[in-house]
Every structure is written in structure tokens, then in C-alpha cells.
Amino acid sequence: MKLIIAAIKPFKLDEVREALVALGVSGMMVTEVKGFGAQSGHTEIYRGAEYAVNFLPKLKLEIVVGDELADDVVATIAKAAQTGKIGDGKIFTLDVASALRVRTGETDMDAV
To answer: Measured between alpha carbons, how far apart are the two ends of the chain, in Å?
Structure first.
């Protein structure tokens, strides 16, 4: 099993979700996060005062899938989340040792 963690722009969530559901992904966790990378932040003006925004809003997606689906999920997220502009995000893939569905006691891929 693989855990895929993706940081994307918030307005791309629906497009990414729809593409993943069409691929057969049955669930994911979404968290609102703030961060910076190459985009580094920017300045904004609020009530006449200029201030620096060092951390930009992003969404973190966490998806656990079988090994055979992992590459397709990464490619699907990358395609659906891409705007071609700086700050499109990052995707990380990690190995998952085990999973357990609390309600039923199912383990590993049966729990996903």
C-alpha cells in the first residue's frame, strides 16, 4: 500500500476529487494547511497598510491506495492540479506498513 500526500491550490480540489473518483479512488482526507516553497509568499494591502503573507493557503490531500494504483493516482493529481504557474504544489509517495478499519477490524487493503 502507498500513502500519497499532495499539497494543492484550494480552488483545484473539486477538479482533483472528480478525477480521482473517476480513477476508482474510494476516499481521501483533506486538510487546510499553510505553507511556502518556491512561491515564497507575497505582499498584500489591507485597509491601506501593506503586509507580507509568508504562508500561503493550500490543501493537503492524503490518500491510501494499493501499490498498483499509486502511479496512476500521482499522475491524475498532477494533471488535475496543474495550472502551469508557480505554487501548483507537491506530491509525495510513502509506503504504508498496515491499515485497520476501526469499526469492522478489517486490515490492510480491505480496510482501505
So the answer is: 9
